Amino acid sequence: AIQQRGLDGVAIVDHNVIEGAWRVQELAPFKVIVGEEIKTAEGEIIGLFLNETIPLGLSPEETIERIREQGGVVYVPHPFDSLRKSVIKREALMRILDQVDALEVLNARVIKKQDNRAAVDLAVERGIAQGAGSDAHHSYEVGRAYIDMPPFETAKDFIASIQQSKVLGHVSSPLVHFASSYARYKKKLSKR
């Protein structure tokens, strides 16, 4: 799906684990950034370019410290999604904003346009690099939202490159949320 959609690479970011991203990185003929969407004590933060899983439940500040210890990139996903429970709390976001490398301004699963727009406004106001993510839970969602950026190799290169990136893509149909809910329901049934 990655190459078919004209993408040069992808960040694989799962909730509180990185093993799947490692497996994809080993097999993929394209660039794979290993990441983790970490549930902190005050909402989600993504670490990119990770080598080890970061435990959930830490403070946002301690989570960022653990990302930095690995030489990783701090990325805040869907910061203003008003329909998502896991979003980082506004007070926490404001406390850590000067430590954030990139703010997601286009998340393809955010239903309300004004929620993505609020992220754009904050990124512009504070001079923070803008990111985008498909937040794909199914292969047909891959590449809905992405960034066009100059080539990079390391986390340090990535930070410089994302400063010159262009956010592209569009929001997915709200029906993708029904597909995810169905998959969770089906998984629960199979465990019985």
Q: In whole angstroms, how far apart are the ends?
A: 33 Å
Sheet bearing the most strands, described? 6 strands, mixed
- Give the helices and strands as they follow along the chain: EHEEHEHEHEEHEH
Strand content: 15-25%
State the helix count. 6
Alpha-carbon Rg, integer: 16 Å
Number of strands: 8
Shape: globular
Chart the SSEs and their pairings.
Blueprint: E1 9-15, H1 19-27, E2 31-40, E3 43-48, H2 60-69, E4 73-76, H3 90-96, E5 102-107, H4 113-126, E6 129-133, E7 145-148, H5 155-162, E8 166-169, H6 175-191
Parallel strand pairs: 1-2, 4-5, 5-6
Antiparallel strand pairs: 2-3, 3-4, 7-8
Using brief descriptors, characterize the structure shown:
192 residues, alpha/beta, six-stranded mixed sheet, two-stranded antiparallel sheet, 6 helices, 24% strand
Report on the architecture of this protein:
The protein is an alpha/beta fold and 192 residues long. Helices cover 34% and strands 24% of the residues. It contains 6 helices and 8 strands. A 6-stranded mixed sheet has the order 1-2-3-4-5-6. It has a two-stranded antiparallel ribbon with strand order 7-8.
